Amino acid sequence: MHYMLIYLETAEEMGKRGNPAEAGTYWGGWNAYMGAMAQSGVMVSGNGLKTPEVATTLRVVDGKRHIHDGPFADTKEMLGGYVIIDVANLDDALEWAARAPCASAGSVEVRPVLPAPAEG
């Protein structure tokens, strides 16, 4: 079964990405974690994301586009990336989620992926 692991990081954790004193440890943890998933064969796909400051949020209200630079909501945790994994069950997905570097400073949302609609 496919599960999406949605990685939510605090601004402090996300700030380590570009801090020369902390970037090596930050990226080292993520590289080891992603490498372990790839090596185990559970990883289907995934991507890290740039920081929310470069996001663009779009809403359509009464047929008109409303565009907002940056994230729409001010939250304590920001979407840092996601991975789709293929594991037997939710318990296995939770085991991988618990190993994520952001699990102790942010959170990991685990969500089943809807199956593709049947053709025909």
From TrEMBL:
| Coiled-coil annotated spans | none
Gene3D superfamilies with a match to the protein in the record: Dimeric alpha+beta barrel
Give all residue intervals belonging to the YCII-related domain.
32-115
Extract the InterPro entries matched here: Dimeric_a/b-barrel, YCII
Q: Record's family?
A: Belongs to the YciI family.
Protein name, entry field: YCII-related domain-containing protein
Taxonomic lineage is: Bacteria, Pseudomonadati, Pseudomonadota, Alphaproteobacteria, Sphingomonadales
